[in-house]
Amino acid sequence: EIVLTQSPATLSLSPGERATLSCRASQSVSSYLAWYQQKPGQAPRLLIYDASNRATGIPARFSGSGSGTDFTLTISSLEPEDFAVYYCQQRSNLDTFGQGTKLEIK
Amino acid sequence: QVQLQESGPGLVKPSGTLSLTCAVSGGSISSSNWWSWVRQPPGKGLEWIGEIYHSGSTNYNPSLKSRVTISVDKSKNQFSLKLSSVTAADTAVYYCARDLYYMDVWGKGTTVTVSS
C-alpha cells in the first residue's frame, strides 16, 4: 500500500499570503496525484489532477507541481474562501489519500 | 453533467451489514471510468473503500477487503456498497464518486451511524 504523508498538519496564514502544502509518497506514484479541497459539511472538491492540471473551474491561483514521490500544492494569494482542509490522493496503485492539511486563518 | 446521490439506512446495528446505493444521473454508469466509495469518520480524513467498473471488475482497500462488496446494476444506472460485520469504527459519512484515476464528481454524502 502506498502511504501519502502531508505536511504541515495545520498551516496558519492570512488572506493574501502564499500557501505551500506538501504531499510525500512512500514510493513513486509517477504523476498520478490529485489534490482536493474540503470545507465543513461538504464533499471534497477536485482541484488538481495528474499532479499539475487544474480541474474545470478552479482558479489560476491554485497550482500543483511534482512527480515521483514529492508533490506541492501552491495557492499564490489566499482568498477568504480558500481556508479549508486539503487532501492529496494517489492512483498509481489502487487509491489512497493523505491525512490532510488544515489551512486556517491566522 | 453527471450527478451522484447516495441513499441507504442512516443507522446500522453492530455486527450487521451496512448497505448503500449510489444513483448516477446525467450520464451512464457504463461510461469508461471506475466508480468509487470513500468514507470519512467524524473529524477524520478520507478513506478509500473500493471501486467498480461497469463490467463488474472491482478493487478494494486491503484493510477492508474481507468485509466489502461493491456491485453494479446497469439497468438502474447505480452501484452499491455492502460492508459486513460493522462496528462503531465504521460510523462515517459515506461518499460515492466518479473515479477517473482522480475523483471529479462526488455525491453529497450520507451519514451512517453504527449503534444499537
Distance between the termini of chain B: 39 Å
Taking all Cα atoms into account, the compactness measure Rg of chain A is 13 Å
Quaternary state of this entry equals heterodimer
Average pLDDT figure of chain A: 97
Based on Cα principal axes, name the global outline of chain B: globular
The rough form of chain A would be described as: globular
Number of strands of chain A: 11
Round the mean pLDDT of chain B to the nearest integer and report it.
97
Number of separate helices of chain A:
0
Q: How much β-strand is present in the residues of chain A? A: over 45%
Radius of gyration of chain B: 13 Å
Structural class of chain A: mainly beta
What is the share of helical residues of chain B? Answer: under 10%
Task: Give a quick account of the main beta sheet of chain B: strands, pairing sense, barrel closure.
Answer: 7 strands, mixed
Along the chain, the helix and strand elements of chain B come as EEEEEEEEEEE
Unreliable sequence segments of chain B = none
- Supply the number of helical segments of chain B: 0
| Secondary-structure-derived class of chain B | mainly beta
Q: Cα distance, first to last residue of chain A?
A: 35 Å
pLDDT < 50 stretches of chain A: none
Please count the beta strands of chain B (DSSP E, at least 2 residues each): 11
Describe this structure in words.
The complex is a heterodimer of chains A (106) and B (116). By secondary structure, chain A is an all-beta fold. Helices cover 0% and strands 50% of the residues of chain A. In chain A, the strands form two sheets. In chain A, strands 2, 4, 5, 6, 9, 10 and 11 form a seven-stranded mixed β-sheet that branches. In chain A, a hairpin with a 5-residue loop joins strand 9 (85-90) and strand 10. The mean pLDDT of chain A is 97. Chain B is mainly beta and 116 residues long. Chain B has strands at residues 3-7, 11-12, 18-25, 34-40, 47-52, 58-60, 68-73, 78-83, 92-99, 103-106, 110-114. In chain B, a hairpin with a 3-residue loop joins strand 9 (92-99) and strand 10 (103-106). The termini of chain B are far apart. The model of chain B has no long low-confidence stretch (mean pLDDT 97). The interface between A and B is medium-sized, with 22 and 21 residues.
